[in-house]
Amino acid sequence: MGENQNAAILAAGTGERLRAAAHGLPKPLVEVAGRTLLARQAEALLDAGADSVLAVVNSETAGLIRERAVKLPPELELMVRDTPNSMETLFAIGERLRAGHFLLATVDAIVPRLEFRRFAAQACELAASPEASGFEGALAVVKWRGDHRPLFALVAADGLICGLGGSETALVTAGLYFFSTAIFRFVQPARASRLGAMREYLSYLIRAGMRLKAVEVSGAIDVDEASDLAAAHAMLGNQSGPAFVREGRE
User: Is 248 a domain residue?
Assistant: First the structure.
């Protein structure tokens, strides 16, 4: 990943829509193909080049990890915070990161391992290029396939994201990001504007003039409900498809 090799996971949500299909477990501890989403995502970030990973989890998840002795990668550090929304979870991550660039993933975004790596490498190349002046980050995007509550991305011909949300477009965000820690300079105005979700904050950043680029990946599943869980199991069980994580580290 390059200079600082920071990485983080947004994992403080409750995952209410998924609980019935997951025997009441919070989303980070739901298993897909025998591994928890939290461990799987941490491993994917490490596999993409991170030295260590910070994950923000809520107190319920942290308690269950202790009670059940949930196995997690040793490079994963947990930050326990009962945040009111995903934007505040992102801001909590910002409190602990070194200045520079960082790779970020939502806990429920399943992206093929090779695509995960390619996204990280391409984002680092963008940040290091001579034309990178004013570049604050990249968002993984994927072709919309009809999933519920997508975050549509309007992308210009040069790859810059012109807008997020709003009208339907061909591309949606995939839950994988590469940012400069400069994105945190808008924390106070965002709070003053009473924004309530990370997607709202990202849209705010673009309106504020931040240059974020889109990097398309070949596929992604956002595990939000039972049908997504079934689809993730099916994709991970397809041995002819791309591998998602290295075995043995989660």
Answer: no
Cα 249 to its chain centre, rounded Å, is 20
What CATH number does the domain containing 83 carry? 3.90.550.10
Q: How many domains does the chain have?
A: 1
Residue 52's CB: how many other CB atoms inside 10 A?
A: 16
| pTM for this predicted structure | 0.89
Residue 221 lies in a domain: yes
> In sequence order, which residues have a C-beta less than 8 Å from that of residue 2 and are 6 or more positions away?
49, 101, 124, 127, 128
- C-alpha distance from residue 166 to each of 19, 39, 150, 239 (Å): 29, 33, 10, 37
> Model confidence over 134-175: pLDDT tens digits?
678 999 999 998 777 899 999 999 899 999 998 899 999 999
Residue in the structure block whose two tokens are 């949930």: 70
CA nearest 31: which of 183, 191, 223? Answer: 223
Is position 226 within any domain?
A: yes
Phi and psi for 160 in degrees, rounded to 5? -70, 140
Query: Is residue 47 situated within a structural domain?
Result: yes
> What's the pLDDT tens digit per position in 3-23?
547 899 999 987 777 776 667
> For residues 53 and 73, is the Cβ–Cβ distance under 8 A?
yes
Note down the domain range covering 72. Answer: 6-236
Extended beta strands in the chain, E state = 6-11, 31-32, 35-36, 53-57, 76-80, 101-106, 109-110, 135-143, 152-155, 161-164, 171-180, 211-216, 221-222
